[in-house]
Amino acid sequence: MGHPAILTVDDDPSVSRAIARDLRRRYGENYRIIRAAAAADALEALRELKLRGGRVAVILADYRMPQMNGIEFLEQAMDLFPNARRALLTAYADTDAAIQAINQVDVDHYLLKPWDPPEEKLYPVIDALLDAWLESGDRDLEAIRVVGHRWNEQSYQVRDFLTRNLVPYRWLSAEEAEGRRLLEAAGVGPEAVPLVVTPDGRALSQPSTTEVAEAAGLSTAPDRDFYDLIIVGGGPAGLGAAVYGASEGLRTLLVERQAVGGQAGQSSRIENYLGFPDGISGGDLTTRARRQVGKFDAEVLNTRTVTGLRVDGPAKTLALSDGGEVSAHSVVLATGVAYRPLVADGVHELTGSGIYYGSAASEGPGCKDADVYIIGGANSAGQAAMYFSRYAKHVTLLVRGDSLETSMSYYLIQQIEKKDNISVRTRCEVIGAQGEGHLQAITICDSKDGLSTTVECGYLFVFIGAEPRTDWLGDAVARDEKGFVYTGPDLLTNGTRPKGWDRDRDPFYLECSVPGIFAAGDVRANSVKRVASAVGEGAMAVTLVHRYLEAQ
Ligand SMILES: Cc1cc2nc3c(=O)[nH]c(=O)nc-3n(C[C@H](O)[C@H](O)[C@H](O)COP(=O)(O)OP(=O)(O)OC[C@H]3O[C@@H](n4cnc5c(N)ncnc54)[C@H](O)[C@@H]3O)c2cc1C
């Protein structure tokens, strides 16, 4: 297999030559630079590469091209090489139109023409795209292979875990020839799925999440017993705290039960995070954050849930789901929130077999040409509708309220209105789910007339609000009636400090009712539920950890 390709397409021959020259100068040694003068030629080149088993790392397309514009081209290119990173070349005058269009398809960057000097304007962007591709690219030969059944819940769990952790894998149905061959080679039958085959040829039948994590090279055991700082939860708040903690010299451990990135990692496109004017997918943001965490040597413990917290004088000890314990001088709770379960007949039994919480990005391609239903009226549901509309025949948003206006951002409502294959049904609720082995139909009750209808449905994605899952904290720190953790000024009652508080100062702004334990992000009572605020609070918590440690 030769070098991976960087493909560039521009109908202006002088621009096309110039960009290919600049790309060759910097990347020619490790990448094959392919230049096309029209979208149709570029698609032909991509098809040929696909047939020959080639790899494509980055695709750069001019926005304004005759016959097919850059966005239309990139949409088609994505069908052939979904993992290739994509950028659009635009003239200054087209910037607005390009940004509008970018919002509708998954484009990573746009580059303004001219890009001189390339060291400043071109190479940093291409470097970032290549890094992202290398992290999650289509390195088929090295990838983990997963053999499973489409509707088998455990098979879904493995797929979802690998997707959320940005681990490249190849999915093979147990019904197809290659899947059957792997099962046979492992000496097991179809009842043994999911079967995970590692790049070095080990076959794991029905592995636990921890075994899958280990097979994917994710760490599952802490290196030491005692740290300066332990962060519980690897969403934006936890990742922010890990980057600042480790970069400022604290021995830092981050414990994550599922996948770093948290809720934000599930977002198909975050539009309002500072510094990303054309939006960024949750996966990309997570990849970048994870690299930053690694760069500063913060340790990440995967597939471990923190199940208890004990305070022994200045030491804080956390109990882990595998029975182990780990201690630190200080703790940042960054456990965010988790989806509230949908309570309706049949839902529990079919969860993971057609019913999913969150956007379940791994299921996108599987929804091709299907009718998809999404419950929820907030931005997360809107983003999911946009995401699945790329694959599904039709997407129906089921909203309990009268309209989307009160719960969803204006820009998303506008995007949804422009999509022919998304419709919105207001004032309705799902009251039942039916199916043999997998979801086949749902029953919807319309509160306008009280009538119920049952419709065929293979995929239902649920976004009905979220709650903090902090029961494991017990009475260790003060929480509100919903379980959100009180911090700083919220702990003072008429100026009186919380019960058991043993310092001659008030709790710091993000400090909990126990000195040295902090909370950041969505889990904090009265927090702003945003990526930016979570990252900011994670960083701020570390500053307060320093203040706490200095006074010890
Ligand atoms: C689909 C979707 C789209 C969104 N889009 C946007 C957007 O466009 N813009 C925006 O600003 N906000 C958006 N949000 C909201 C934003 O993602 C959240 O506000 C943000 O992720 C909160 O970060 P956090 O770190 O506090 O918590 P979370 O992101 O919830 O992360 C918490 C992490 O802690 C882990 N965890 C929980 N309990 C434990 C435990 N006991 N042990 C170990 N680990 C644990 C969880 O597995 C999770 O990974 C979106 C949310 C969703 C769901």
What are the key terms here?
single chain; 552 residues; alpha/beta; seven-stranded mixed β-sheet; five-stranded parallel β-sheet; 15 helices; 26 strands; 23% strand; globular; binds flavin-adenine dinucleotide
Brief summary of the model shown:
The protein has 552 residues and is an alpha/beta fold.
Task: Characterize the structure shown.
- The protein is globular.
- The chain has 15 helices and 26 strands.
- The protein is an alpha/beta fold.
- Helix content is 30%, strand content 23%.
- Helix 2 runs parallel beside helix 3, helix 10 runs parallel beside helix 11 and helix 10 packs parallel to helix 15.
- The termini are far apart.
- The strands form six sheets. Strands 10, 11, 12, 13, 14, 15 and 26 form a seven-stranded mixed sheet that branches.
- Bound molecules: flavin-adenine dinucleotide (FAD).
Radius of gyration: 25 Å
Tell me the distance between the termini.
Answer: 58 Å
The proportion of residues in beta strands is 15-25%
Bound molecules: flavin-adenine dinucleotide
| Poorly predicted sequence stretches spanning 5 or more consecutive residues | none
- The outline comes out as globular
Number of helices: 15
Strand pairing plus helix content: what structural class?
A: alpha/beta
Beta strand count: 26
Helix content: 25-40%
Mean pLDDT: 92
Biggest sheet architecture: 7 strands, mixed
Secondary structure layout:
Layout: E1 5-9, H1 13-27, E2 32-36, H2 39-51, E3 56-62, H3 70-80, E4 85-90, H4 95-102, E5 109-112, H5 118-121, H6 123-136, E6 144-148, H7 153-164, E7 169-173, H8 177-185, E8 195-197, E9 203-205, H9 209-215, E10 226-232, H10 236-247, E11 252-255, H11 282-295, E12 299-301, E13 306-312, E14 315-320, E15 325-333, E16 338-339, H12 347-350, E17 355-357, E18 371-375, H13 379-389, E19 394-398, H14 410-418, E20 422-425, E21 428-434, E22 441-446, E23 452-456, E24 459-462, E25 466-467, E26 517-519, H15 531-550
Parallel strand pairs: 1-2, 1-3, 3-4, 4-5, 6-7, 10-11, 10-15, 11-12, 15-26, 17-24, 18-19, 18-24, 19-20
Antiparallel strand pairs: 6-8, 8-9, 13-14, 14-15, 16-25, 21-22, 22-23
